[in-house]
Amino acid sequence: MFSFPYYHQAALVLCSLSVFSLAATEGPSSYRFLAWLYGISYGGYVYALKMFIYEKVLTLSCRQAYYTSLYTELSFFFGRKR
C-alpha cells in the first residue's frame, strides 16, 4: 500500500494534466470527460491531503496521550498511601 504523500502527488499530477489538456480538446464530450477527470483527481487530492494531515496530527496526539497516561499512572502509583 502506498502512503498518502504519493496519492497526493499522483492526484495533483493528474489534475494538472487534465487542466493542461483542455487546450487540445474539441467537442463537448471531451470537455465532459476532462471535467469528470478533473473532479475525480481534485477530490483525490483533497482526500489525500486531509488524510495526510490527519495521520500527522494523530501521531502527535497519540504520543502526547501516551505520555499523559503514563504520568497519570506514575503519579497515582507513587502518590497513594499504603
Largest sheet at a glance?
Answer: none
> What is the count of β-strands?
0
Distance between the termini: 52 Å
Helix content: over 70%
Rg computed from alpha carbons, rounded to a whole number of angstroms: 23 Å
Percent strand:
under 5%
Shape, principal axes of CA atoms: rod-shaped
Low-confidence stretches: none
SS element count, helices:
2
Oligomer: single chain
Mean pLDDT rating: 76
Please indicate the count of domains. Answer: 1
Helix-strand pattern: HH
Q: By helix and strand content, what is the structural category?
A: mainly alpha
Describe the 3D structure.
The protein has 82 residues and is mainly alpha-helical. It has two helices and no strands. The chain has one domain. 84% of the residues lie in helices and 0% in strands. The longest helix has 52 residues, at 28-79. 5% of the residues are buried.
Task: Give me a quick take on this structure.
The chain is mostly helical and 82 residues long. It has helices spanning 4-20, 28-79.
Keywords:
single chain, 82 residues, mainly alpha, 2 helices
Please render the helix and strand layout as text.
Layout lengths: L3 H17 L7 H52 L3
Helix pairs in contact: 1-2
